[in-house]
Amino acid sequence: MAAPFRVLELLVSTDLGGGPAHVRDLVAGLAGDEFQFTVAGPPGGAYEGEFTALGARFVSVRADRLSPAVLRRVVRLIRDHRIEIVHSHGKGAGLYGRIAARLTGAAAIHTFHGIHYQSYPRLYLTVERYLARHGYAVVHVSASQAREAQALGLAPAGRSRLVVNGVDAARVRAAITREPLSRAALGLDPGALVLGTVARFDPVKGLDVLLRAFAQVLARRPTAQLLLVGDGPEAARLRDLAGALGLGGRAVFAGPVKDAARGLPVLDLYVSASHREGLPLALLEAMVCGLPVLATRVPGHVDVVEDGVTGVLVPPGDPTGLAGAAVELLEDPTRRRGLGEAGRARAETHFALSRMLAEMRDLYREAGGFHREGPHVRGV
């Protein structure tokens, strides 16, 4: 029997978020006789313990910081543990992982979990294009993201793969059954119509737009509430904005919540106001819970939400349009129920985790075989 392929998953964060959750699913679904996993990233995040509980080795690497010492650390990690496949997630991890893989002869795979190019400096795009051409593969998590990447020169022919994100519907249902979160636990009124979102508090998520939209919703539905689950660099600014808009207790900041899907059933409407996405796992989890979805018409969302069938799409950056669509849905429970039921069926049929795992298994086998049989580039 062939020795297992040794895989390094390199992350810029181990906190709650889509990238670490994606790696958690890869380790849970693929670790075993064929693949051995090492996960590296900043220490102390909520997912660190999950990685080790699933049988992966966890190594502290501050891939969220720019430093030559980090690159040396990754190179040493690859050599010490005889890593054959380096799979990076996030900008810093993608830089260190692919350079270190090239220096050590490992096969480099990088996954884009969203391409927020408007915030990228021109030099960074130049570096990304170079790395994309010289790694083993670049993975895109949605078809719309792949098209966007191609236009930016980040999807080189022969090295680009489409592996659409999948959701573990069974895990979501088990979490809801095992440890459900009540409205009282989340600080919500028992009789309110509740809009909610789960997101990293980052400018690309458009949470400021959502707060401005909710202020307009309250003008027509004064008993509505908005639940925001998450944390991030925008947290203080968003709380200040909620205060300036006079939202008071109608906007509830729940902070980061482990297995946030446990609270989704208390919502009446799931809302995502993002300016760009890869393919958001939180949105898929909301659909698994049978929630109607209101989202912006941006890459990632358009792959998941069938406008008028499983949810409603509105233009990004438009608080008034978002508010109008939200009020229409809040006032029509029959339509919400129909959208939610259709969304649940679509999530479980088209975005199954088993399909994603099978496609990543094939890519790892291919990259690992290349490493063992192909020429290696050795560093100095």
Structural class: alpha/beta
The portion of residues assigned to helices is 40-55%
CATH class of the largest domain: Alpha Beta
Question: What's the shape?
Answer: globular
What is the average per-residue confidence, as pLDDT, rounded to a whole number?
Answer: 94
Count of discrete alpha- or pi-helical segments spanning 4 or more residues = 15
CATH superfamily heading of the largest domain: Glycogen Phosphorylase B
- Poorly predicted spans: none
Number of strands: 13
How far apart, in Å, are the first and last alpha carbons? Answer: 33 Å
- Strand residues, percent: 15-25%
Write down the CATH topology of the largest domain.
Answer: Rossmann fold
| Cα radius of gyration in angstroms | 21 Å
CATH architecture of the largest domain: 3-Layer(aba) Sandwich
Strand order of the largest sheet: 3-2-1-4-5-6-7
Model description:
With 380 residues, the chain is an alpha/beta fold. The chain folds into two domains: 5-166 and 353-373, Glycogen Phosphorylase B (Rossmann fold, 3-Layer(aba) Sandwich), CATH 3.40.50; 175-350, 3-Layer(aba) Sandwich (Rossmann fold). The chain contains 15 helices and 13 strands. It has a seven-stranded parallel sheet, sandwiched between helices. It is globular. It starts with a strand and ends in a 7-residue tail after the last helix. The model has no long low-confidence stretch (mean pLDDT 94).
